[in-house]
User: What shape does this take?
Amino acid sequence: MKVLLLGVTGRVGSRMLPALLAHKHQVVAYVRTPSKISPEAASKFDSIVAGSASDSVAIKAAILSHNCDAVVNAAGLAAMTGWTSQGEFPAIFAAVVQAVVEAGQERGGPPIRCWLMSGWGIMDSPKKPYMLLDYIPMFPSHRRNYQLVKSHPADKLAWSVFCASDMTPQHVTPQFPPAADASASNLVAKADSPPAWAEKYRKVPIIGNYLNIMAQAQNYFAVLENCVDFMAADLEKGLESEWIGKRVGVKEKSKVE
Assistant: This one.
């Protein structure tokens, strides 16, 4: 696929590039400041487009002019609480969604495939209908972003949101090609609720569900290079992906009890 990648100079986006290339995708960079891209990375892109990640018109133009089949948004950083400035992340997320929907409509045909970064908190908790962030009220913008993508029908937006608890790089810098041990095969994945969930403290009165979630949060920290390989590999499936329209959670196989 030809993939428009936002956030290419950040921690996630810079590692997404080698993963996408390893899975034979062509990559178009969309970045505010092209000079921040390393010479090594710059040489790998099919094209580089300068623009703001919150400018839906410019993002749509990049999708259409470069005939992109998919978009991966790794731009922006969610604020931890609702008491501080939410920064650009909500505006970036909304702009990407709007651009993808409008580009698909203008082009005609099937919807554009889209991977969006989100957080572990919007996964369903063991006690329905609550989300994990109902117990750990952090990163509130993720809930609003999830409601936004859900508002679009599947024939207009082929979305998936990647819901990581935390992603830690295994290597200090992006690796070209990715290290041999960076692989989606190191992960277990599940749609809409955390995979390989363990029941702990559930019988404790009143606070059992809260303790259950708090006790397991760090078990869902994952290796960043494994996560980006998961998304890059999934894009090979195109619109046949089983993760379209899903919140996707992962867990390192080494942490499965």
In short: The mean pLDDT is 93. The two ends are 36 Å apart (CA to CA).
